[in-house]
Amino acid sequence: MIDAGHLDRVGRRVTLRPVDDDNWRAVADVAPRDDQRRFVAALGARYLLLSSRSQVWTSLAVYADETVVGHVMWGADDDGSHWIGGMLIDAAEQGRGVGRATMQTLAPWLAARDGNPPVRLSYHRDNTPAAALYASLGFHPTGGVDDDELIAEQTP
Questions:
Q1: What angle do CA 107, 120, 30 make, to 5 degrees?
Q2: 30 and 89 in contact (C-beta within 8 Å)?
Q3: Which residues pair with 14 in a beta bridge?
Q4: Contact 74/28 with Cβ under 8 angstroms?
Q5: Helix axes 98-111, 128-136, angle to 10 degrees
Q6: Around Cβ 22, how many Cβ atoms within 10 Å?
Q7: Angstrom distance (rounded) from CA 52 to CA 67
């Protein structure tokens, strides 16, 4: 479990936990709002499948107290950087600071691994809420693009 002590806006402790036999179905069922589906997968199941079929990504369940409320995954690149991908907070849980607490938990944890590598992520250029969140957390655009998504980086 990754626990940095962050709370969402309603006072629930946000933690990141391995996806296992007890929680994978709840993670697979996580779904964004309909208007977000052009930016992220329609269900957490897609990200679970991606992480199970590749050697790159590791999926984590996002918990608020003892309830699964989202999915996020991370991976390491050949250049030593760490990536955050597939952050999906369930539509019913959005607006409560869960996404922010997830990023505040995962990014420093990744930065502390393997000698403080940069932490990177990407987002669709039209996803202005994501861009604002990431900028507020110290991620800055690198100028790079991956699959039509802008790459942003947080350096230690």
A1: 65
A2: yes
A3: 64
A4: no
A5: 50
A6: 10
A7: 22
- Among 85, 77, 147, 62, smallest CA distance to 118 is for 77
pLDDT digits (tens, 9 = 90+) for 38-64: 888 888 898 888 888 888 899 999 999
Q: What is the pLDDT of residues 115-132, one digit of tens each?
A: 778 899 999 989 989 999
Count other C-beta atoms under 10 Å from residue 80's C-beta.
12
Q: Whole-angstrom Cα distance, residue 57 to residue 4?
A: 21
- The one-character DSSP state at 12 is P
Separation CA 37–CA 35 (nearest Å): 6
Supply the DSSP symbol for 65.
T
Kindly state the helix (H) or strand (E) to which residue 68 belongs, with its residue range: strand 67-76
